[in-house]
Design a protein that fits this description.
The protein has 303 residues and is mainly alpha-helical. It has 13 helices and no strands.
């Protein structure tokens, strides 16, 4: 472990990170957002979803720096009297969880199918690629809406954790195609190289060749794509929640907070929807900037 860390800090990726102000800034913003989301129970000044602590008399209070605001509600309150700052932290936790798990599931499915298609070839490759073509003919948000709607129709009385599972599966099935196509292309190149041919000659099992030799050499593009798609998955989750088919209302994410605030935007309570929108933009932008830096850092032609 110590040797691996030493190699990392002495490598080109860490050198590129240290000399990229944009990457450092994006990493700091992303780290702060993730820290506040993960430790919301300790960092947040209030628990916005504890009904026993809510006061309807504090509903729709403006931010603390505006007239009528209170210091204990720095970013104001929503229509239920919930602290906006605390709601952002708890909402970001849900958005990051759904986005992260859905991307992880997409990576597992997409990398596995792409590796199989590129290494085996033939009819298996043709079948998997035709499925990818069909999936690419539909917009990702439409696929997520269809799957999410079908899941809720099949399980109308489902518990909240099942609703989360349906949402994660819906987003995952929208994004696995990119991983499959990317890994397939890289595998088609790697399978004809000398180290793969040598492994075949000495009788190494094909599965061992795929996962032990080929897979480590095709993970570079996957890491870049996964970093960027975390932001896309979070935005997709926010979109579904904004449309009312996302996470349960009892555990609102950033998309749900934006939808709630949208009802009061034209009545003057702009902070209810603006601050969740800013939080969503900060998370997505910082992750996208990190993905762009990682793509450049892992591409030797751009060094």
């Amino acid at each position: 472990m110590k040797a691996a860390l030493q190699r990392f800090f002495a490598g080109d990726v860490w050198y590129s990170f240290r000399h990229s102000p944009v990457a450092i800034g994006a990493a700091l913003v992303a780290a702060v957002c993730v820290f506040c989301a993960v430790f919301a129970g300790w960092v947040a000044p209030h628990n916005p979803f504890d009904l026993a602590t809510l006061e309807l008399s504090d509903a729709r209070l403006p931010p603390a720096w505006e007239e009528g605001g209170q210091a204990r509600y720095l970013l104001g309150t929503d229509d239920q009297g919930r602290d906006i700052l605390s709601a952002l932290m708890y909402g970001a936790r849900i958005s990051l969880f759904v986005g992260g798990v859905s991307v992880l599931l997409s990576v597992v499915v997409g990398v596995g199918l792409g590796l199989l298609a590129g290494f085996v070839g033939g009819r298996v490759d043709a079948f998997i690629m035709r499925v990818c073509d069909v999936m690419l003919s539909f917009p990702p948000i439409l696929i997520a809406l269809l799957i999410d709607g079908a899941g809720r129709a099949m399980f109308p009385e489902a518990a909240e954790h099942l609703a989360f599972a349906v949402l994660i599966i819906a987003i995952s099935l929208s994004y696995w195609v990119q991983y499959a196509r990317t890994v397939r292309g890289s595998t088609l190149v790697e399978r004809n190289k000398e180290y793969v041919q040598a492994a075949r000659v000495i009788g190494v099992h094909p599965l061992r060749i795929m996962f032990r030799h080929v897979l480590p050499n095709v993970t570079g593009p996957v890491l870049v794509l996964a970093t960027i798609q975390v932001a896309l998955a979070i935005i997709t989750e926010a979109t579904l929640s904004f449309l009312g088919v996302g996470v349960p209302p009892t555990q609102p994410s950033l998309g749900t907070l934006i939808r709630v605030g949208n009802d009061f935007l034209f009545s003057g309570e702009w902070w209810i929807t603006v601050f969740p929108g800013v939080m969503l933009v900060l998370i997505a932008l910082s992750v996208n900037l990190l993905g762009d830096w990682l793509r450049d850092a892992l591409n030797p032609r751009l060094r």
